[in-house]
Write a structure and sequence with these properties.
Elements (H helix, E strand, L loop, with lengths): L3 E10 L2 E11 L17 H6 L6 E6 L2 E2 L3
Antiparallel strand pairs: 1-2, 1-3, 3-4
């Protein structure tokens, strides 16, 4: 089982789509790094996963949804 599973993560700031359709699996003990250009969503993605920003998509932590 994955520690974290993300399917179709989308985050918008008003009319601007900051993150579009991210899918991600993180196994327990695995180290993950987000890399990309400025404005690619590197900061927005973990903020959405921590529920600091409103997001759409499926986020499971230890198999349980955290998006409701």
């Amino acid at each position: 089982m994955n520690l974290l599973e993300v399917r179709g993560l989308n985050v918008s700031y008003g009319g601007i789509k900051a993150v579009r359709g991210i899918d991600l699996n993180v196994a327990q003990g695995e180290l993950v790094c987000l890399i990309g250009a400025n404005g690619a969503g590197k900061t927005t993605t973990p903020k959405a996963l921590a529920r600091l920003l409103p997001a759409h998509g499926k986020i499971l932590y230890q198999g349980k949804p955290i998006t409701q």
